[in-house]
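Model it.
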Amino acid sequence: MLTHHRRPICLSLISTDLPICSTIETAATLYQKDRQRFHLLFYQSENSQQDSQLPKNPAKTNENLLWLEISPYRAIMTMQGKEKLAYRHFWEKGIYGMSRYWLNCKESQASDSLRLRNYTRSLQLEGFPLPTNLRVEYELWSEKVQLGHYILHLEIYH
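Modeled.
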């Protein structure tokens, strides 16, 4: 069962103990994989707030593709850009997941990655039959050093 819907979204990342706050408002495609599993794909330009009025053509602009795999039990967020930083976060409530960052390099260059752990304190997915809200609260860790508490909040407007 693969159905898709084009929807406006708002994705926010907030740190509760550091001065970090980032918001993306754009249109996304929501794919329903089965009854409780969804994929959400959208583009984020380098300057998404100013570019929101411009026509979108990913081949000619510096946009990053973001996709989220979401279910009531886990969330995976991946971002890939053209010759830039890429990342993947894996969150599942009550466990230590992996956050991995890497540079997209040309094939002739080596690309190492930075791996951090995250501990998911809370993961809530609301809405039926299609999701309307996702909230992930997590801690980011490097070995035994905590790098902050974060909240990822996604709103999908129907």
